[in-house]
Amino acid sequence: MVGKTMLLGSAMIAAMATTPVGAQPRDGSIADVAAGAASVTPREDGIDYRKGRLVMRITALTDSVLRIRIGRDGTLPEDASWAVLPAMRAAWARVTPTSDGFRTDALVVKVDAKTLALTVTDPAGKVITADTAQPIDLDGTAFTLRKALPIGEHIYGLGDKTGGTLDRRGKTFVDWNTDAYGFDSSTDPIYKSIPFFIGVGGEGGSYGVLLDNTWRTWFDFGHKAADTLAMGGPDGPIDYYIIAGPTTREVVRRYTDLTGKAPLAPQWALGYQQSRWSYGSADEVRRLAETFRKDRFPIDVIWLDIDYQDRNRPFTIDRKAFPDFKGVVKQMRDDGIRIVAIADLHVADLPNQGYAPYDSGVAGNHFVHAADGSVYVGPVWPGPSVFPDFTDAGARAWYGTNFKGLLDDGVSGIWNDMNEPAIFDTPTKTMPLDNIHHIASDQFAPRDATHAEIHNVYGMENTRATYDGLRTLRPNERAFVMTRASYAGGQRYAVTWTGDNSATWDHLKLAVHQMINLGLSGFSYGAADVGGFTGGPSPELLTRWFEIATFTPIFRDHSAKGTPRVEPWVDGPEQLAIRRRFVDERYRLMPYLYALADQNARTGDPIMRPVFYDYPQAIGASCDQSMSFTLGGDLLIAPPPHMESPQSYDVCLPAGGWYDYWTGKPVSGTGGNGLDAGVQAEARTGAGGGEIKLTETPALDRLPVFVRAGAIVPRQPLVQSTAETPDGPLELDVYPGDDCGGTLYADDGHSMAYQGGAYARQTVRCTVTDKGISVTFGKRQGSFAPWWQAVRVVVHGWQGKGSATLGNNDVPASADAANETISATIAPPTTETTVTFAKD
Predict the structure, then answer these.
(1) pTM of the full structure
(2) Domain presence at residue 350
(3) Under 8 Å between Cβ of 362 and 351
(4) What's the pLDDT tens digit per position in 513-565?
(5) How confident is the model at residue 31 (pLDDT cuts 50, 70, 90)?
(6) CA 763: distance to chain centroid?
(7) Residues with Cβ within 8 Å of residue 789, at least 6 apart in sequence
(8) Is residue 570 part of a domain?
(9) Active-site residue list
(10) Residue 752 vs residues 300, 478, 479: alpha-carbon distances, Å
């Protein structure tokens, strides 16, 4: 059992244990703490080491996940966490002791008993991660951990950190949630602290490390020393996890096992969303909605920034600007448009003025205190403000009750901003580090803690209070929360965006990198303000941003007060037509997107991914892939790497075969056959082997998108919002190739009923033979009846005529020589059913 020492034979214990040295610890490296070797105590789930008063415990939570805790004073850090789920911290795997560590079915753990240097390999001896010769430094309460960084290893993750490239190698970062208005590609720290990174390309495959410490931690990925990965903090627990792959997919899935999966979002969250600081009146909101519907531009959400409130006070309504707030929200809902409203975490400091959030918060002692014991007051949007004590479960429960009025008015989601927390008129941009929070939550022993410890987790706990409040008030509805600040595990409560970005080409490129790394860090629902929050985009920049955002998880157009408008129509009919064509395509792809959301909720796989996530050989591609990414692995999007100065560029498609998304034809590598205009192709063998290299000539109205050979992609007739039922059959586009398959998923799009089985999930496979192709629907799972009354199966890459059968019955088939397709329409199968297309 966990916590009990395994009883071993005396010979094994004698081989493993050494006499402890009684020297007292002092600052310096582990080797300085006590001379000689550590004493060793084996456990059923791992091993303990002790040198003087320093103790290190290594345990196996699973065969592929290790936890390492180091205590400076003879005791281990508290077994509690804001990030890691209690069930995972309690998990354990039985290990097999060895003379220098232990092994699991997947890992071999070796420890140098003199230096406590840790090496983790796979059973074949390939190194997954290894400490340096001097693995641990202690300096008072501060600590540094060092691991080897092989030359061929790349580093990803850390949430939406900047850095100018997707790869973190060669850079240093600090985790300290910061209101980083005006940030650029070299700004650090910024809004979030996600102390999790992934090593890719080492001899043992991919691995991940989560440093579970909420203080101002730091990471050096070969910056100070090219061959060393270092991390540390000024205080707090030395408590970290090593997650083995060997694939990046396995690392991300296991990381989200540790810290939680993002809950399935409401389907409307995947639609187009329009925002600005601010749409300041009911009339403006109505005019905005009317223009979208008149222009036949699909939309699902309008966001309300702080100006809908009475003097910027959270949980209030400006009744002059919105005399019938509930009425306009209902009018929008009737038109298929949801309202998401901002609720900053601060509460206006308004004693004796009838402001209920303040009065009830004071009555319950729910606010953060200053070091002198008084309630802390700091200036933010409403003026002097107080701040809920979100590390206290009682304060979180109280905070959640404040959303009742907004939900009663029909608001569908909440936007938590300013939750780093951001404070005005202070040099640090945040509250004093000696402010006092009360911890009463998450298996922590109840105690007070300074803001220096709580700062990085404060925004996440704000979103937790919001999410839990929405779920309590509307238990049958999915809660939608957007946050700016968070910590590891925050994906359990909120989607996120990259903060106050700028209207520049550099920020568009940065947004792609940030969203990819967010997905690798558990936050699959990532967004960046389309067009840029500050400044004003050129027509070409805004259009290109719309095109790329079409294939990202959350698509929100947002801009700042005092900047040029960025609604889709602002640059005239030509730009509007391009933007609408791409947004239309997003709505046609909604069944594919929603199936990815379901997959993410179940597995943790990101929606938007780096190409190497599904195609590891892409790490060695011969092209500049700095802007390439996939949507769920089956669609590869390849924007120009230098969008600010259009020029021809190369796109490398991984081995295995691809189709052009826009034409539906195979990419043959023979001079552009099957490709959209402006593309030429050549077959070649790159570092990844068998890649296809394309030369793309950028055009503003074109974005290269490719489909994996073997993908089955569901699409639907165009709608103007997800509230509208598509009129016509579900289209199932089959792109023959290896590992041919896809998934259909549907539910009611907004409630929790899917958790009780009210969903429809169905796998579809295809098999290619010399005589044709068979498309097989698996048995449908779940009790939900999806919207489609028919399914049109379209096979791409078809040459000549053909016929179709459903079981033993002929069905009408239509071959299209120009588009190289054959199709047939059938009733939606609920049991295993095969449609066969035969060549004539």
Answers:
(1) 0.94
(2) no
(3) yes
(4) 999 999 999 999 999 999 999 999 999 999 999 999 999 999 999 999 999 99
(5) low
(6) 25
(7) 729, 827, 828
(8) yes
(9) 417, 420, 500
(10) 20, 6, 10
